[in-house]
Write a structure and sequence with these properties.
By secondary structure, the protein is mostly helical. It has 2 domains: 115 residues, no CATH class; 93 residues, Death Domain, Fas, CATH 1.10.533. The protein has 12 helices and no strands. Helix 5 packs antiparallel against helix 6, helix 8 packs antiparallel against helix 9 and helix 8 runs parallel beside helix 10. The protein is elongated. It starts with a helix and ends with a helix. The relative contact order is 0.10. It comes from Nesidiocoris tenuis. This is Death domain-containing protein.
């Protein structure tokens, strides 16, 4: 995609977004009505934002959109979720037509310039650039996994072997090391994990944790990765 064309989409997106944000305030009869619509949107977008603390702190539509942009759910490259906002607030004026015109122009451009959208913004791993080289997993993420893995380290090890990030000898060695605590064994497994392919580590880690049915730990780790991203 040429820089000029991308700048055009970005400008049109910002104009469209600003218009929607302004109208959500103007079209509501009172603050209570606005809050009701905002709460409904929070319920819908929670699965994308995946942070209860940040979701609760979003006290207006502008902040909610910023959170969605940080998760690459909304942006000049995808305005589908803006439709949800427009529908929720019933902005049945030129806003709908403007949004549809933008989507139509973007869709036409994608047909002939699909390669311009890969990699990001269409990289499903939104955490790809969160961790700097040489420090694959942020310390607080590593600490959380080590402290909470417990005896599930065995299942974690098996999944690492299946993903070709470890070998049977690694598992056997740890299994026989009765002097090591589960925390120490988990720490060693994470070292093996870090030594593998450096790309999309966050996605890999999420798949591994879900594979061993540790969705609770995956949610905690996701929150910490996002916090780390915000601090960068």
């Amino acid at each position: 995609m040429s820089l000029e064309k991308r700048n055009e989409f970005e400008k049109n997106y910002e104009d469209l977004k600003s218009s929607i944000i302004r109208k959500t305030k103007v079209y509501c009869k009172n603050e209570a009505e606005y809050r009701n619509h905002l709460d409904n949107l929070k319920m819908r977008f929670g699965k994308h934002i995946r942070s209860i603390r940040r979701l609760e702190a979003a006290d207006d539509v502008k902040t909610l959109i910023v959170l969605l942009e940080k998760r690459l759910v909304v942006g000049w490259f995808d305005v589908e979720q803006l439709h949800e906002i427009v529908d929720e607030f019933e902005l049945n004026d030129s806003t709908v037509a403007d949004l549809e015109d933008y989507q139509s122009a973007l869709a036409k451009y994608k047909l002939t310039h699909a390669q311009a959208f890969y990699p990001p913004p269409y990289d499903p791993d939104i955490f790809g650039d969160v961790v700097p080289p040489g420090d694959v997993i942020p310390p607080k993420v590593k600490k959380c996994i080590i402290e909470n893995m417990g005896n599930d380290w065995r299942f974690f090890a098996r999944e690492l072997i299946s993903a070709e990030l470890a070998v049977e000898n690694d598992f056997d060695e740890l299994d026989k090391s009765s002097h090591l605590s589960p925390e120490e064994k988990t720490e060693r497994l994470l070292r093996l994990f870090e030594q593998g392919d450096k790309r999309n580590k966050r996605s890999q880690l999420s798949r591994l944790l879900k594979a061993i049915r540790r969705n609770d730990l995956d949610e905690e780790v996701t929150e910490l990765f996002l916090e780390n991203n915000d601090e960068e």
